[in-house]
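Request: Mind sharing a record?
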Amino acid sequence: MNIQATEQDGVTIIPLEGRLDGSNATVAEAAFLQLLSEGRERFVFDFSNLQYISSAGLRVILVAAKKLRASKGSMVCAALSEQVYDVFEMSGFTNILDLASTKEEALAKLQAKA
């Protein structure tokens, strides 16, 4: 997984593509941790091109959420496919994470919190 994060209006957008599973979860986590260490505090995880997420992928998202809560940062998960949303729902993530239908909606949520 090659993660090319971008920034828009002070929000870091992390696009996730293909599969987020045991074979690449550490890459995604390392990319997030690097961005966090650079002082970034607001993130959109863009799931629009993610077809599958495993428990290892869920762990990456949970680590991100916990680290951001500890540092008073924030994140929104955007554009989850039906399959990825179902995994989030079964895992209880829909109750603990901020979700948005689109990347634009996610950006607006983070702007409103600023």
